[in-house]
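Summary for the steering committee. The consortium agreed at its last meeting that each partner would contribute one worked example illustrating the joint modelling workflow. Our contribution is presented below. We chose a case with several input lines so that the handling of multiple components could be demonstrated. No manual editing was applied between input and output; the record is shown as generated.
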Amino acid sequence: EPEVTQTPSHQVTQMGQEVILRCVPISNHLYFYWYRQILGQKVEFLVSFYNNEISEKSEIFDDQFSVERPDGSNFTLKIRSTKLEDSAMYFCASIGSTYEQYFGPGTRLTVT
Amino acid sequence: AQTVTQSQPEMSVQEAETVTLSCTYDTSESDYYLFWYKQPPSRQMILVIRQEAYKQQNATENRFSVNFQKAAKSFSLKISDSQLGDAAMYFCAYFGGSQGNLIFGKGTKLSVKP
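What follows is the complete predicted structure of the assembly.
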């Protein structure tokens, strides 16, 4: 069964550093998403991506964040200058024809 | 704006018993989708069940079923014959036509006692 994959599973970085989180969505899906979950809290929407451009973004998705689909398979989330409060689980998801969003296993980002 | 409310932060059930997790939502749209996701300690988000708002029939997936009350904007999850592996956080989520992303509730932590 096709699945969304994410790398790395865990990333530790120092405050102020740039990080890139990678995702490979399910191949025939067209909409891609990034969500974030701070430990113990609910899952929050960051950004959606369709047809090689941002479709929607939340208030969380400020100028420190960017997304890119550099090739036909990868979908990346970049945080330019990480802050302590960026520590969270980051999930990539892609949506199929029946509107079900399939989530990757997540990347745990720890900013020290 | 659409909102999703899960009023039970924690629930507990005895193994083999039945438990119902509550979810209410607020929307002005008529066409939308509702989901329950399971998040075990691994923190993977696993789709449990989905419901289309235009369908009157309640969705079922093996031991999981929903009670969808569109007029009341209620979408509860029933887990029958609870198993130890059902212990997890459960999130209710809304996906609307004009809202391109999932909106999640705060979750209910389910414990299963042997």
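Chain B touches chain A through 21 residues (CB under 8 Å). The mean pLDDT of chain B is 94.
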